[in-house]
Amino acid sequence: MNFGRGDLVVDADLVAAVRERRIAGAVLDVFTTEPLPAEHPFWTTPGIVVLPHVGGLHPDRDSLVAALWVDNVRRFLSDRPLLQVVDRARGY
C-alpha cells in the first residue's frame, strides 16, 4: 500500500513484481504523475488497485470513507450503480 508519495515507488518494478507474483498486489493512492495517465499499466495490471487521491487529514475522513465503502458494497450486491467511481477517461 502506498498512501505516502508517488515517487517512493518505481512503477515498472512494482508492475513486474505483481505480474511475476513476487507480491500479491498493490493498492495505490498516490502516483509519480497525477492524474495517473490513461495509458499507465497500473490501470490494467491485475492485482493493482488504483484509488482516487483520498488521503488527507480531514477530521471526518475515516467515517466518510467507511460510510461510502459500506454503501458501495450494498450497491454492488444489489446491482446498483456505485458512487464516486474513478473516471478512467479523466485519470482520476
Oligomeric assembly: single chain
How far do the termini sit from each other?
Answer: 18 Å
Profile the largest sheet: 2 strands, parallel
Strand order of the largest sheet: 1-2
Q: Please, what is the average pLDDT?
A: 87
List segments where confidence is low: pLDDT < 50 over at least 5 consecutive residues.
none
Share of residues in strands: 5-15%
How would you portray this structure in words?
With 92 residues, the protein is mainly alpha-helical. The protein contains two helices and two strands. It is globular and about 35 Å long.
Topology record:
Elements: H1 11-19, E1 26-28, E2 48-50, H2 61-77
Parallel strand pairs: 1-2
Summarize the structure.
This protein is mostly helical and 92 residues long.
Key terms for this structure?
two-stranded parallel sheet, single chain, mainly alpha
